[in-house]
Amino acid sequence: MIGIMSAMQEEIQALFNQLENPIKSKKGKRDYYQGTLFGKKVVLVFSRWGKVASATTATQLINDFDLKELIFTGVAGAIDPNLNIGDIVIGKKLVQHDMNASPLYNAFEIPLLNKTFFETNSLKREALTKASNLFISNFTSVISEKEAKTFHIKDPKVFVGDIASGDQFISKKTQTSFISKNLPNVLCTEMEGAAVAQVCYEYKIPFSILRIISDKANDNSHIDFPLFAKQIASKYALNIFESLFTNKVIIS
After folding, report:
1. pLDDT digits (tens, 9 = 90+) for 72-125
2. Catalytic residue of the set 80, 109, 192, 215
3. Which of 46, 93, 143, 167 has the most beta carbons within 10 angstroms of its beta carbon?
């Protein structure tokens, strides 16, 4: 079974709507929905915001639903200046930008694991990247001109790179400058991915992550996130997962 997570229900609402024969179960104040999505057995859940919430949800998924892999999808704020609203980032390595146990450990290193970054599964990452590029090639058939204009989306692109997570909403230049200076390969930031990646690493579960850029993560990051998630990110996810699960992409 494939686990699909998001931090907000709006980010995967379109997947919920497409889920066939759903079976709902409630555990730890989370609603888990098992069913079939484009021919694949899946379980959908939104974790709520933050590393603790997402790590708890990922652990529950792995222990209770016999997962073969876990995919996280949702929005993120751009750190790299080359990113724009509507771009897609497929995570390669995940790091917690607010982890610092120095002087006992190096900054950003996870105590006792001797790891700073958690890398996603290479084959899953390749498949997700190809599915995302296929979506981008058909972008105008999914996202209307009005929707794109409303959220300032122009010529979206797919990037593969590092993602930083932390229990902070990044909206100030001082925050983005700290991440850029200390973690120069990070493309975007959010609040869950690295925690889920760590759980998957410890349980040896293949992990991949898809993030849609919703803002620039700076002083100008004022956006209706639930609306963007529902109208844009959810549609991205639906179409990308359809390509991913119906074998429209070929892995070399």
Report:
1. 999 999 999 999 999 999 999 999 998 888 888 888 889 989 899 999 999 999
2. 215
3. 46
Which run of H or E residues covers position 244? Answer: helix 234-245
Tokens of 34: 């098992």
In the set 11, 80, 162, 242, the catalytic residue is 11
Rg of the chain, C-alpha, whole Å: 17
Statement: 74-244 belongs to CATH 1.10.1370.30: no
Domain limits of the chain?
Answer: 74-244
Q: Which residue, 208, 188, 178, is CA-closest to 79?
A: 188
The chain-wide mean pLDDT, for the chain, equals 91
* Most distant CA atoms of the chain, gap in Å: 53
Active site residue 215: yes
Q: Which pLDDT belongs to residue 10? A: 86
